[in-house]
Amino acid sequence: MEKVLLSKSIETAQEIGYEVNNLMAVKDSKVEDLQTFIDGKAKQKNIIYAVIIDTNVKAIAHSDKEKTGKVCDDAYTVDGAKNGNAKTLRFYADVQKCWTYDVMVPIYKNGALAGALDIGIPENGITDVVDKIQQIQGLIALVSFILIGALLMLWFNRAFAPLTKVVAVIDRMGKLDLTSTNEINDLTETEDEIGQIAKSIHTMQSGVSSLINSIIDNSNNLGNSSKELSLTVEDLSEKSVTINDAVKNIAYRMQESSAATEEIMASIEEVDSSINVLSQRSVEGSQNAMEFKQRATGAQENSQKAIEEARRISDEKKLNMEKAIEDGKVVDSIRIMADTI
Q1: 269 within some domain
Q2: CA–CA distance from 224 to each of 4, 230, 264 (Å)?
Q3: b/e map of 164-173 (b: 16 or more CB within 10 Å)?
Q4: Across the strands, what pairs with 51?
Q5: pLDDT confidence of 17, banded at 50, 70, 90?
Q6: Domains in the chain, number
Q7: Which end of the chain is more exposed for a tag (fewer CB within 10 A), N or C?
Q8: What is the extent of the structural domain holding 108?
Q9: Which phi-psi region, left, alpha or beta, contains residue 93 (left: φ > 0; alpha: ψ -120 to 50)?
Q10: How far apart are CA 276 and CA 270, in angstroms?
């Protein structure tokens, strides 16, 4: 708070100092004019005293006329009037009975340092000014807030109105209402961010619509395929029953065939046994045949030998008979013939 009061005191002193500079810049300006100016400023509520000091630290104009012409040789005044440094000092004024800010600022004439302006500003006066300024600033801030709020509301309503339309389109899409509207089509013609969003939503709307139509078509096709599959399953079920019956029949026939096969196998075993017997007998017959053949061969050989022997004997007897006949021995011939017979 003290910094604020001091800053306001310096600003007040600088404003009065600018007026003094302008007054001194006039060619015909006199000390009396400066005194008149100081008397006028001293009458203001927020100024206790006002003094114009030249570079010789002499008061050439003073709100307390008795002090006009007084030389102020203290270091505070010398530094401000001769060196042109701004000075500030807070002190308690016994006459006015209040805390006061003494503010000294340099003054210039035609750009050259001409001294300093020293004024006393009561702290309560600055406080009142600060309070009034704060009130004004608060009022201005309130009015500004209201105006800015109203402008922002208007701007937001205008800026977010397209977004409201976009949200409405998205809500309809959420309810599977994918019909295109003029609102979204109008928004797609703009080149701002809302337009870009609207274009994306329009593209998504078209894509979702195509996807749903494709799903519906595929669903219909799937329904038809399901019907065909159902008929095929029924047909297969009927054929399965037929095949099952055929399998049962085949199994029954196989059982019969198995029984017949067993009978055949038994018959084959009997035949095989008979064959084995015949084979053995054949072997035995073969052996007997070989013996018979050998015996027949031997008999044939013996018979041949007997025939040859009989033929030889017959020939011999025939020869003997012829000889007997020739010799007249009839008795011997008869005997020989009888022996032969």
Answers
A1: no
A2: 88, 10, 57
A3: ebbeebeeeb
A4: 62, 118
A5: confident
A6: 1
A7: C
A8: 2-122
A9: beta
A10: 10
Structure tokens that stand for 318 in this block: 């025939």
Per-residue pLDDT tens over the stretch 69-97: 999 889 999 999 999 898 988 888 777 78
Taking the C-alpha atoms of residue 223 and residue 23, their distance in angstroms, rounded to an integer, is 104
Residues 6+ apart with CB under 8 A from 340: 313, 314, 317
In a domain, 311, yes or no: no
Give the start-end residues of each E strand in the chain: 49-53, 59-62, 87-93, 98-109, 112-122
Angle subtended at Cα 232 by Cα 231 and Cα 233, rounded to the nearest 5 degrees: 90
- Do the bridges between strand 87-93 and strand 59-62 make them parallel or antiparallel, or are there none, so unpaired? unpaired
> Is residue 39 a part of any domain in this protein?
yes
**Spatial contact of 300 and 281, defined as CB atoms under 8 Å apart:** no
C-alpha distances in angstroms, 41 versus 10, 14, 226?
15, 13, 106
Q: Both tokens of residue 145? A: 């807030």
**Beta strands 98-109; 112-122: pairing state:** antiparallel
| Residue 54 contacts residue 80 (beta carbons within 8 Å) | no
CA 201/CA 181 separation, integer angstroms? 12
Per-residue pLDDT tens over the stretch 295-316: 656 655 665 675 576 567 666 7
Highest mean pLDDT among 111-115, 184-188, 217-221: 111-115
The CATH number of whichever domain residue 60 belongs to comes to 3.30.450.20
Q: What's the rounded Cα separation, in Å, for the pair 38 and 184?
A: 73
pTM, two decimal places? 0.39
Q: How far apart are CA 108 and CA 114, in angstroms?
A: 5
CA distance 60 to 274: 174
Within 8 A by CB and 6+ apart from 128, the residues are: 46
Q: Each residue of 330-341: pLDDT tens digit? A: 445 555 555 554
Q: How far apart are CA 187 and CA 197, in angstroms?
A: 9
Backbone φ and ψ of 69, nearest 5°: 90, 0
